[in-house]
Amino acid sequence: MPKRRCGERDGGSTAKPWKRRLYLVCDDWDSGYSIRKFSLPADSGEGAVQGLPTLFWRVVARHHGGDMIIDVRTRCVVSGPESNSPARPIYFPVGEDRLYVLDSGCLELCRLPPEQSDVESDGDDYSSLDEYDSGSDIDSKDDWFWHQLPMPPFAIIDVTSYAMHPHSHGHSILVSIKSEDLAAATFSFETEVRAWNFLGEWTFPFKGRGHYESELRALVGLSKVKGAFGFIYACDVPNTSNRPPAWKRSKEKVFSKNPADKHVSASLVYLGYQRKFCLVECVLVEEDKACQEVKEDKDDQVLLEKPEGTCVPQRRRYMYRLMTFSLKYDKMGDLRVRHRRVRYYKVPSKVSKACVRQDPVVFWL
Predict the structure, then answer these.
(1) Which PANTHER family does this entry report, sorted A to Z (predicted)?
(2) Which of 207, 253, 258, 313 could form a disulfide with 230 if both were Cys (CB 3.0 to 4.6 A apart)?
(3) CA separation (Å) from 68 to 50, 100, 242, 284?
(4) Complete edge-to-edge strand list for the sheet that includes strand 247-249
(5) Which segment of 9-23, 81-95, 274-288, 291-305 scores lowest on mean pLDDT?
(6) Are 329 and 338 in contact (CB under 8 A)?
(7) 72 touches 57 (CB < 8 A)
(8) Which residue, among 235, 276, 286, 234, has the nearest Cα to 256 in the 3D structure?
(9) Best CA proximity match to 216, nearest among 270, 178, 267
(10) Which of 51, 76, 81 lies closest to 66, judged by CA?
(11) Half-sphere exposure at residue 35, Cβ-oriented, CA atoms within 13 angstroms
């Protein structure tokens, strides 16, 4: 892979400004993955169904390998370290040149080495940074390289939620864990001093990734547990007092309320401004509901099968339900979901069941 030229990292002085888009990754061809680029819905169209957007890029890769990083701006592919093939990696991007990867039994930093022009312009002495020492794993085929960081004091299989919160002096990786054999606990990794800290015996109320929203001054995440299924949580950023942070749960669910939609998986993406988010939910659409009845309870919507022989055959298909929305606190201090915009997209028949059953791989870049 050729070296980047001066100015190429940011598109160069003559490049057009980069306009952020939503990208979805699918395993809809035998030799690798397809990346689709979405325009966010401008109005609501709950009943409108369309095919996925035009193909943006195809990447040749083994399915479920998880050992590469893709730069959509330069269309470069970066391989992960061969010594540790990722099992269930969790990614924490920082700026445009650093990526922290939490994997089974390790934490690694992937970053771009400074170009000579960058060093001369900013005056930093990068030669003193230990991530550029002889122990670094530099791949001669590309500009990125990996560096081992202190191992986490927990197993990645026990991770329930995670987030990254910016501080005035660097960044902190926040990770909550819980299992049948372990008590609830939350840890932080301080990137400036490269050390793990124990924050307390509690976990974030959301599941999976939390997104820091500066106007709400909260970590925002999605709940997938019984009793709070499909709600949004806004959680205060934890401090060093070992006390669990305060949180609020949205008054409305964000998952589909259509009785024909059976929830399969979902990912929440922060759009980076004005409390705006995008939910990408995969649903299994039951086109003929003659075989089912809907029972509503205070927690969840439950689909009940009628006795065999009393219904007609159904047609099923997977759909991606794309919903943008904003969050705000009302006069009573309650968290509200506002300005919903919805579109449905057909999932290509070649997408594997393993792909639709895991949370959609989606990015706002």
Answers:
(1) F-BOX ASSOCIATED DOMAIN-CONTAINING PROTEIN, OS12G0113100 PROTEIN-RELATED
(2) 253
(3) 30, 13, 37, 30
(4) 195-200, 185-190, 170-177, 159-167, 207-213, 218-222, 232-235, 247-249
(5) 291-305
(6) no
(7) yes
(8) 286
(9) 270
(10) 81
(11) 21
- Residue 6 contacts residue 117 (beta carbons within 8 Å): yes
Cα of 254 vs its chain's centroid, Å: 17
CA torsion angle 229 233 237 239 (round to 10): -50
- Find the Cα–Cα–Cα–Cα dihedral 151, 153, 154, 159, rounded to 10°: -80
**361-364 and 335-346: which strand pairing?**
unpaired
Is residue 196 within 8 Å of residue 152, measured between CB atoms?
A: yes
Give the dihedral of Cα atoms 221, 171, 87, 131; nearest 10 deg.
170
What is the Cα–Cα distance from 345 to 45, expressed in whole angstroms?
Answer: 11
Handedness of CA 102, 250, 273, 42 (dihedral sign): positive
Structure tokens at 80: 């992960």
CB 218, CB 234: distance < 8 Å: yes
Residues 197 and 174: their CA atoms lie apart, in Å, by 10
Which among 170, 202, 212, 208 is positioned nearest to 189, based on CA atoms? 170
The residue type at 297: D
**What pLDDT shows up at residue 152?**
94
- The tokens describing 253, both together, are 């669910």
Tokens of 75: 């269309």
User: Tokens 């400004």, residue?
Assistant: 17
Contacts of 127 (CB under 8 A, 6+ apart): none
The DSSP bridge pattern shows strands 98-103 and 106-111 to be antiparallel
> What pTM does this model have?
0.79
Residues paired with residue 188 on neighbouring β-strands, in sequence order = 174, 197
Q: Which of 142, 191, 181 shows the shortest CA–CA distance to 158?
A: 181
Tell which wins on pLDDT, 128 or 150: 150
